[in-house]
Amino acid sequence: MPNITRGSRMGGLLAYLQGPGRANEHTYPHLVAGDVSVMTWHGTAVLDRPTALAIAAQLDQPRRAFGVEVAGGSVWHCSLSLRADEGQLSDEQWAEIAREFVEGMGFSDETRTDEDGQVVGRAGCRWVAVRHGVSANGNDHVHLAVSLVREDGTKASVWNDRRTAQRVAGELEAKNGLQVLESRAVGRGGRGYKPAELATAQRRGEVEPARAALARAVRAHAGAAADEAEFVRRLRRGGLLVRPRYAAGRDDVVAGYSVALRPTGGAKGTAAERPVWYGGGHLDKDLSLPRLRREWPDTPTGASEAVAEWNAARRGARLVRPGRETREPAPRLWQEYGRDIAALRERLRQVSVTDRAAWAHVAHETAGALAAWSLRVEQTPGPLAEAADALARSAHVRAADVPASRPADVSAVKGATLLLASLSRGGRGSVAQAILLRQLMNLAKAIHDAHVAVGEAQRAAQVAAVARQQLRQVQSGLPAVRADVQVSKTAARPARVTSVSPTAWASAAVGLPGSNPTSIKHRRVTAQPSAVADTEVGR
User: Fold this and answer.
1) In 3D, which of 396, 440, 414, 363 has the Cα closest to residue 221?
2) May I ask the CATH class of domain 5-179?
3) What per-residue confidence (pLDDT) applies to 156?
4) Which of 207, 310, 403, 535 is 20 to 30 A from 26, comparing alpha carbons?
5) What pLDDT shows up at residue 251?
6) Mean pLDDT within 154-168
7) Domain residue limits, the chain
8) Which residues form the MobA/VirD2-like nuclease domain (predicted)?
């Protein structure tokens, strides 16, 4: 996914591209393409520091000559990358792709004839494409550095540049016979992690960036909450820092929220690090407050209670009115929710596979249940966390495809999330958990089948891998379930648990060979991150 960054120091960017890299991964840095003025002087030069700084000065010359300042910075930087298992392109291929990408973004010059026969046009931006070997993860890529001040001193437009970059990348994939990124075509793309986030996690000794941990925690607490006020309380009880974002000019209307991990204390004699805040929508597409509110009842009383809890969170005050999150669910609910999820699986057979909003809703709730389970039983992110993150990607849809109200009744899954969020930490798990896991695996299979039916082979393969690897690993750590154990009873006949065989449906999924759901022999172009939680609880 494109991750475009802006800055104001062209020299700093070129020096980084020429330098050793964060993990000493940069080898043989050199130009592969650029605008006419730069390529005339430097050609496909191998970059040493003096040459890199000279190129930076040349790129920045129009800005300095015309005295133009660009809000947000005049340096536009993006990298285009192949998957690590897709090999490498030649310099000539990268050069052509870079030129077409720059042209598609509107940064090149353009000359045309108007209705009166007059030749009109726009001046181009100065730019270069730098290649310096594969990334630390083995991805072949090229960096684009563009000055946003054109040759005539005018400013290049970067309005909607991220969406434009997606469109142009898709066009290049099709034109050059590269692997088309499926998530872009159906609006399922997620946010990647910037090098700075990965570096911070590594420096702190953390196994993943803070944003990943926050997204999973928010997903779990939202899935277990019956209303917005409970959501706020669960976030706070889970140890997260929470603050609301009010509507303009109001202090009684909450339009959004931000969360942060509590900063760890500094070493003796040093100050603790400041919290890093992330807005809900920045965590993931389906975690913005408007999206989450579709899951909860919309009543005046509920809105008032929610605002009270948001205000308390902002002040760091006590919870206003603790609710069911403080109580243990009744044991009978394990059987009831297991039965209800089985019934949901049957109802999903009637849902059109083209109803992306409905299937995204199911994936969102299923991911929430697995995330809640992970928070309770995994000291560090394990197979449950990986499964939750993978299914969450099936919850991504374009904003235009999201209905005003929830498209499917998945209260059974929310109930399961409530149960899983109440688990005691540690322990091997119970038969009830093993039965519930089987039902969640059935939902994963339904989501997989929907992806297959609409031709989303890559996403289907990823969901299949979740069952074959992560969920099966969790299943192996739970007590065995006898084949005659019942999860539901009806007047007509008992419904028995049917064991899901992840290997059977996963390895046969999407027509991919054997047990390797990712053996797609094509390439893709994408933009790579740039440098610069004793009373019965009712349902």
Assistant:
1) 414
2) alpha beta
3) 94
4) 207
5) 85
6) 90
7) 5-179, 189-327, 330-521
8) 71-178
